[in-house]
Specification:
With 265 residues, this protein is an alpha/beta fold. The protein has helices at 46-53, 83-87, 105-110, 114-117, 119-123, 129-141, 157-171, 187-204, 215-221, 244-251; strands at residues 6-17, 20-31, 35-39, 65-68, 71-75, 78-79, 90-93, 175-179, 207-211, 224-229, 232-238. It has two domains: 1-89 and 174-255, Rossmann fold, CATH 3.40.50.300; 98-173, no CATH class. The strands form two sheets. It has a six-stranded mixed beta sheet, with helices on both faces. Strands 2-1-4-5-6 form a five-stranded antiparallel beta sheet, with helices on one face. A hairpin with a 2-residue loop joins strand 5 and strand 6 (78-79). The two termini are 33 Å apart.
Length: 265
Protein backbone atom coordinates (compact mmCIF):
# COMPACT_ATOMS: atom_id res chain seq x y z
CA UNK A 1 0.00 0.00 0.00
CA UNK A 2 1.31 3.43 -0.88
CA UNK A 3 1.14 6.24 1.63
CA UNK A 4 -1.23 8.05 -0.72
CA UNK A 5 -3.72 5.16 -0.43
CA UNK A 6 -3.53 5.00 3.36
CA UNK A 7 -6.09 6.54 5.69
CA UNK A 8 -3.64 6.01 8.55
CA UNK A 9 0.09 6.11 7.95
CA UNK A 10 2.57 5.52 10.78
CA UNK A 11 6.22 5.69 9.78
CA UNK A 12 9.18 4.81 12.03
CA UNK A 13 7.44 5.98 15.18
CA UNK A 14 8.98 5.57 18.63
CA UNK A 15 7.67 6.51 22.06
CA UNK A 16 9.74 6.36 25.23
CA UNK A 17 8.51 6.42 28.81
CA UNK A 18 11.52 6.89 31.06
CA UNK A 19 13.92 4.16 29.99
CA UNK A 20 11.25 1.95 28.39
CA UNK A 21 10.50 1.98 24.68
CA UNK A 22 6.72 1.65 24.40
CA UNK A 23 7.03 1.95 20.62
CA UNK A 24 10.25 1.19 18.80
CA UNK A 25 10.36 2.18 15.15
CA UNK A 26 6.76 1.17 14.38
CA UNK A 27 5.50 1.50 10.80
CA UNK A 28 2.00 0.52 9.68
CA UNK A 29 -0.48 1.71 7.06
CA UNK A 30 -4.25 1.20 7.17
CA UNK A 31 -6.39 1.59 4.06
CA UNK A 32 -9.87 3.06 3.90
CA UNK A 33 -12.49 0.49 4.90
CA UNK A 34 -10.14 -1.95 6.61
CA UNK A 35 -10.91 -3.51 9.99
CA UNK A 36 -7.59 -4.24 11.64
CA UNK A 37 -6.92 -5.92 14.98
CA UNK A 38 -3.93 -4.89 17.08
CA UNK A 39 -2.85 -7.77 19.31
CA UNK A 40 0.07 -8.53 21.57
CA UNK A 41 0.96 -9.08 25.22
CA UNK A 42 0.17 -6.49 27.86
CA UNK A 43 2.65 -3.63 27.62
CA UNK A 44 3.45 -4.33 23.98
CA UNK A 45 2.50 -0.79 22.87
CA UNK A 46 -1.00 -1.28 21.46
CA UNK A 47 -2.75 1.48 23.43
CA UNK A 48 0.21 3.83 23.02
CA UNK A 49 0.03 3.37 19.25
CA UNK A 50 -3.69 4.25 19.14
CA UNK A 51 -3.18 7.30 21.34
CA UNK A 52 -0.26 8.39 19.16
CA UNK A 53 -2.41 8.17 16.03
CA UNK A 54 -4.77 10.78 17.50
CA UNK A 55 -1.97 12.92 18.94
CA UNK A 56 -2.99 12.15 22.53
CA UNK A 57 0.49 10.69 23.11
CA UNK A 58 3.32 12.77 21.59
CA UNK A 59 5.93 10.62 19.90
CA UNK A 60 9.69 10.88 20.35
CA UNK A 61 11.68 13.38 18.33
CA UNK A 62 13.47 12.11 15.25
CA UNK A 63 12.20 10.96 11.89
CA UNK A 64 8.87 9.46 13.02
CA UNK A 65 5.67 10.72 11.39
CA UNK A 66 1.94 10.00 11.68
CA UNK A 67 -0.56 11.05 9.03
CA UNK A 68 -4.33 10.50 9.01
CA UNK A 69 -6.52 11.36 6.00
CA UNK A 70 -3.34 12.61 4.36
CA UNK A 71 -2.84 15.28 7.04
CA UNK A 72 -0.01 15.38 9.54
CA UNK A 73 -0.96 14.50 13.13
CA UNK A 74 2.58 14.70 14.43
CA UNK A 75 6.13 14.55 13.21
CA UNK A 76 9.49 14.46 14.96
CA UNK A 77 7.85 14.77 18.36
CA UNK A 78 5.71 17.80 17.51
CA UNK A 79 1.91 17.77 17.35
CA UNK A 80 0.53 19.36 14.19
CA UNK A 81 -1.57 22.52 14.44
CA UNK A 82 -4.12 20.63 12.30
CA UNK A 83 -4.63 17.88 14.86
CA UNK A 84 -8.05 19.11 16.04
CA UNK A 85 -9.39 18.98 12.50
CA UNK A 86 -8.13 15.43 12.11
CA UNK A 87 -9.51 14.34 15.50
CA UNK A 88 -12.97 15.56 14.54
CA UNK A 89 -13.06 12.72 11.99
CA UNK A 90 -11.82 10.03 14.39
CA UNK A 91 -14.04 8.29 16.92
CA UNK A 92 -12.17 6.90 19.92
CA UNK A 93 -13.78 4.11 21.96
CA UNK A 94 -12.06 3.62 25.32
CA UNK A 95 -11.87 0.50 27.46
CA UNK A 96 -13.70 2.22 30.34
CA UNK A 97 -16.40 3.81 28.13
CA UNK A 98 -15.41 7.43 28.90
CA UNK A 99 -19.01 8.51 29.51
CA UNK A 100 -20.07 11.15 32.04
CA UNK A 101 -21.85 9.01 34.62
CA UNK A 102 -24.20 11.68 35.98
CA UNK A 103 -25.46 12.69 32.53
CA UNK A 104 -28.16 10.85 30.64
CA UNK A 105 -27.26 8.39 27.94
CA UNK A 106 -28.88 10.74 25.42
CA UNK A 107 -26.67 13.66 26.47
CA UNK A 108 -23.52 11.55 26.45
CA UNK A 109 -24.19 10.44 22.89
CA UNK A 110 -25.24 13.94 21.80
CA UNK A 111 -21.85 15.23 22.94
CA UNK A 112 -20.46 13.63 19.80
CA UNK A 113 -21.97 16.58 17.92
CA UNK A 114 -20.02 19.24 19.87
CA UNK A 115 -17.55 19.66 17.03
CA UNK A 116 -20.39 20.87 14.81
CA UNK A 117 -22.44 22.82 17.34
CA UNK A 118 -19.95 24.42 19.71
CA UNK A 119 -19.15 23.73 23.35
CA UNK A 120 -21.60 26.04 25.13
CA UNK A 121 -24.59 25.11 23.03
CA UNK A 122 -23.93 21.49 23.84
CA UNK A 123 -23.36 22.10 27.53
CA UNK A 124 -26.70 23.93 27.73
CA UNK A 125 -28.47 21.09 25.95
CA UNK A 126 -29.55 23.27 23.03
CA UNK A 127 -29.65 20.41 20.54
CA UNK A 128 -31.26 21.10 17.14
CA UNK A 129 -34.09 18.74 16.20
CA UNK A 130 -31.97 17.12 13.48
CA UNK A 131 -29.28 16.29 16.05
CA UNK A 132 -31.86 14.90 18.47
CA UNK A 133 -33.17 12.59 15.76
CA UNK A 134 -29.63 11.49 14.87
CA UNK A 135 -28.90 10.68 18.54
CA UNK A 136 -32.04 8.56 18.87
CA UNK A 137 -31.40 6.77 15.58
CA UNK A 138 -27.85 5.99 16.72
CA UNK A 139 -29.03 4.78 20.14
CA UNK A 140 -31.59 2.56 18.44
CA UNK A 141 -29.00 1.11 16.09
CA UNK A 142 -26.80 0.03 19.00
CA UNK A 143 -29.80 -1.28 20.92
CA UNK A 144 -30.01 1.11 23.90
CA UNK A 145 -32.63 3.68 22.83
CA UNK A 146 -34.94 2.59 25.67
CA UNK A 147 -32.35 3.85 28.16
CA UNK A 148 -31.84 7.28 26.60
CA UNK A 149 -33.13 9.16 29.67
CA UNK A 150 -31.19 7.14 32.23
CA UNK A 151 -27.97 8.29 33.84
CA UNK A 152 -25.06 6.56 32.16
CA UNK A 153 -23.69 5.17 35.43
CA UNK A 154 -26.90 3.21 36.05
CA UNK A 155 -26.34 1.04 32.99
CA UNK A 156 -24.26 -2.08 32.45
CA UNK A 157 -20.77 -1.94 30.99
CA UNK A 158 -21.97 -3.41 27.72
CA UNK A 159 -24.73 -0.84 27.40
CA UNK A 160 -22.32 1.99 28.13
CA UNK A 161 -19.84 0.72 25.58
CA UNK A 162 -22.53 0.52 22.92
CA UNK A 163 -23.47 4.10 23.76
CA UNK A 164 -19.84 5.11 23.29
CA UNK A 165 -20.02 3.64 19.79
CA UNK A 166 -23.26 5.57 19.17
CA UNK A 167 -21.44 8.75 20.19
CA UNK A 168 -18.82 8.10 17.49
CA UNK A 169 -21.67 7.65 15.01
CA UNK A 170 -23.20 11.00 16.00
CA UNK A 171 -19.75 12.56 15.67
CA UNK A 172 -19.70 11.44 12.06
CA UNK A 173 -16.43 9.58 12.52
CA UNK A 174 -14.79 8.12 9.42
CA UNK A 175 -12.25 6.16 11.45
CA UNK A 176 -12.95 4.38 14.73
CA UNK A 177 -10.06 3.55 17.05
CA UNK A 178 -11.24 1.15 19.77
CA UNK A 179 -8.84 0.52 22.65
CA UNK A 180 -9.63 -2.79 24.35
CA UNK A 181 -13.38 -2.11 23.99
CA UNK A 182 -14.39 -5.55 25.31
CA UNK A 183 -11.72 -6.13 27.96
CA UNK A 184 -14.04 -5.39 30.90
CA UNK A 185 -17.14 -7.04 29.43
CA UNK A 186 -18.63 -10.51 29.69
CA UNK A 187 -18.47 -12.63 26.50
CA UNK A 188 -22.09 -11.96 25.48
CA UNK A 189 -21.72 -8.18 25.82
CA UNK A 190 -18.33 -8.36 24.13
CA UNK A 191 -19.78 -10.07 21.07
CA UNK A 192 -22.49 -7.39 20.80
CA UNK A 193 -19.87 -4.65 20.84
CA UNK A 194 -17.69 -6.41 18.27
CA UNK A 195 -20.74 -7.07 16.08
CA UNK A 196 -21.47 -3.34 16.11
CA UNK A 197 -17.93 -2.42 15.10
CA UNK A 198 -18.07 -4.98 12.30
CA UNK A 199 -21.44 -3.60 11.17
CA UNK A 200 -20.06 -0.07 11.00
CA UNK A 201 -17.13 -1.34 9.00
CA UNK A 202 -19.13 -3.41 6.51
CA UNK A 203 -22.30 -1.34 6.10
CA UNK A 204 -20.97 2.17 6.63
CA UNK A 205 -17.46 1.69 5.27
CA UNK A 206 -15.79 3.00 8.43
CA UNK A 207 -12.14 2.19 8.94
CA UNK A 208 -11.76 0.38 12.27
CA UNK A 209 -8.61 -0.34 14.26
CA UNK A 210 -9.29 -2.29 17.45
CA UNK A 211 -6.86 -3.48 20.12
CA UNK A 212 -7.75 -6.87 21.56
CA UNK A 213 -6.39 -9.23 24.18
CA UNK A 214 -8.66 -11.97 22.84
CA UNK A 215 -6.97 -13.47 19.79
CA UNK A 216 -10.07 -15.49 18.89
CA UNK A 217 -12.04 -12.24 18.59
CA UNK A 218 -9.35 -10.80 16.33
CA UNK A 219 -9.57 -13.89 14.14
CA UNK A 220 -13.38 -13.87 14.08
CA UNK A 221 -13.96 -10.20 13.31
CA UNK A 222 -10.91 -8.92 11.43
CA UNK A 223 -9.25 -9.95 8.19
CA UNK A 224 -5.90 -8.38 9.06
CA UNK A 225 -3.92 -8.54 12.28
CA UNK A 226 -0.96 -6.45 13.42
CA UNK A 227 0.91 -7.94 16.38
CA UNK A 228 3.17 -5.89 18.62
CA UNK A 229 5.72 -7.19 21.08
CA UNK A 230 8.04 -5.00 23.15
CA UNK A 231 7.03 -2.01 21.04
CA UNK A 232 7.83 -3.57 17.67
CA UNK A 233 5.66 -5.00 14.89
CA UNK A 234 6.41 -8.71 14.68
CA UNK A 235 3.47 -9.76 12.50
CA UNK A 236 1.34 -7.87 9.98
CA UNK A 237 -0.85 -9.97 7.77
CA UNK A 238 -4.03 -12.01 7.35
CA UNK A 239 -5.60 -13.83 10.28
CA UNK A 240 -4.95 -17.09 8.44
CA UNK A 241 -1.25 -16.56 9.14
CA UNK A 242 -1.73 -16.81 12.91
CA UNK A 243 -0.59 -20.41 13.17
CA UNK A 244 0.72 -21.99 16.34
CA UNK A 245 4.34 -21.05 15.67
CA UNK A 246 3.44 -17.39 15.06
CA UNK A 247 1.29 -17.24 18.21
CA UNK A 248 4.13 -18.69 20.26
CA UNK A 249 6.43 -16.03 18.81
CA UNK A 250 3.95 -13.32 19.85
CA UNK A 251 2.80 -14.58 23.25
CA UNK A 252 5.19 -17.36 24.25
CA UNK A 253 4.41 -21.03 24.87
CA UNK A 254 1.32 -20.20 26.96
CA UNK A 255 -0.39 -18.42 24.06
CA UNK A 256 -3.67 -20.22 24.87
CA UNK A 257 -4.17 -17.66 27.65
CA UNK A 258 -4.75 -15.02 24.96
CA UNK A 259 -7.90 -16.82 23.79
CA UNK A 260 -11.23 -16.15 25.46
CA UNK A 261 -13.13 -19.14 24.09
CA UNK A 262 -10.32 -21.61 23.56
CA UNK A 263 -7.28 -21.71 21.32
CA UNK A 264 -7.30 -23.72 18.09
CA UNK A 265 -5.74 -27.15 18.34
Amino acid sequence: MTDAAAVISVDEVSKTFGTRKALDGVSISVAKGEMVALIGPSGSGKSTLLRSITGLAPIDGGSGTIRVFGESVQASGKISDRVRSVRSRIGFVFQQFNLVGRLSLFTNVALGALGRLGFWRGMLGLWPEAEKRLVMVSLARVGVADYAAQRANTLSGGQQQRAAIARAMVQGAEVVLADEPVASLDPVSARKVMDLLLDLNRKDGLTVVVTLHQVDYAMRYCQRVVALKAGQVIYDGPVAGLDRATLVQIYGPEFEDAFWEGAPQ
